[in-house]
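Message: A physicist's question: would you kindly supply an amino acid chain plus fold tokens?
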Amino acid sequence: MNHTNFEFKFLKVPILTVATVLIVGFIPIQQTVEWKAPKEADALKNPYKGGSEDIKAGKKIFANMCTICHGDKGRGDGVAGAALNPKPTNLTTKTFNDQSDGAIFWKITEGRAPMASYKATLSEENRWQLVNYLRTLKK
């Protein structure tokens, strides 16, 4: 009996198992934990609801600060978003649009990794304007 052949067959399974674990371990797994704003966020009322000037201002903010991750049309397909986990939200879906304005405002304000908080970056007015623009992205 050839010891080299026997040793290879004997070691084949553990080597393949370790290799598989290492390969799979380095593949990023998409987080599926749903991001929900706290219930009290639903009570926040949008003081700038629906005005065309506010939507226009929100569109400008979106173009400057959000498209890199969320994409030009808000589908979560921006160039920087490809490397993120969890992936950026598709802002055109029913799930996104079923949220209250207050919940969306809260998420923009507070953020959650990998999305930054915009509390210090955008004024309260700018965050509401952004909410108004996001409402125009529905499918």
